[in-house]
Amino acid sequence: MQWRIAGCNRLLMVATVAVFLAPCTAVASRKTTVYVRDAVAISPQCLEVGTRELQFACHRVTPGDGIVVAEHRYRRSWNIDSSTYRKLTIRLPAAIAVGDILLTENGKVGVFFSEGSAAFAGKRGCYGRAESGSVEIVSITDRRIRLKVHAVVPRNSPLGWRGDCAESVVISQTIKASRRAVDELTVWQGRPSVHDSPFSEANPSD
Q: What is the C-alpha separation between 136 and 148, in angstroms, rounded?
């Protein structure tokens, strides 16, 4: 896991008795990926939750009979209220092989996406389940997986605010992930916990 620091621009002016230093607007970004066997996510009932959980419930990973691959991105701004998160979770059947192309339309694969404010988790942002698309298995071993995701996800606002999530998001990317056990996941990575709030699911704790 690495942090990338960018956007820190300083202007240094030296006068006879004064030094002027422009403010640094540092931004740190982070990405984690996980590959979990004997697990399940994006259940048919995962959106039957309260408003503040709509952006996170389908990302939660529990023991099951399939495979879950997930990517989590976090961008921390110097102004904490401007920090954001982005999550993509993919549910796959247990029996998959290199070269398989699974379609979301036939229910063999599930894709769930959400993004929004990390400071106002569950209130600001968008979420949605892919209505069309595919997942191609590029490589898979017991320890690692690589796949290509192409999907169209209609976005919804958890508070029903018109215009905030009017346009669908088109996902087209490759994900590489290493194996993790269900009980090794953090709340940020999808481990359900009755003691944690949506804030914990939108902000990495380590």
A: 5
- Cα distance between residue 18 and residue 143, in whole Å: 58
- Tell me the residue type at 188: W
Q: How far apart are CA 40 and CA 78, in angstroms?
A: 36
Whose CA is closest to 170, among 152, 156, 155, 154? 152
Rounded to whole angstroms, how far apart are CA atoms 206 and 193? Answer: 16
Q: Over the stretch 33-43, which tens digit does the pLDDT of each residue have?
A: 999 999 999 99
Contact 73, 30 (CB under 8 A): yes
Global confidence as pTM: 0.84
Alpha carbon separation from 94 to 67, 68, 121, 137, 169 (Å, rounded): 6, 9, 32, 12, 27
- What gap in Å lies between CA 183 and CA 200, rounded to an integer? 17
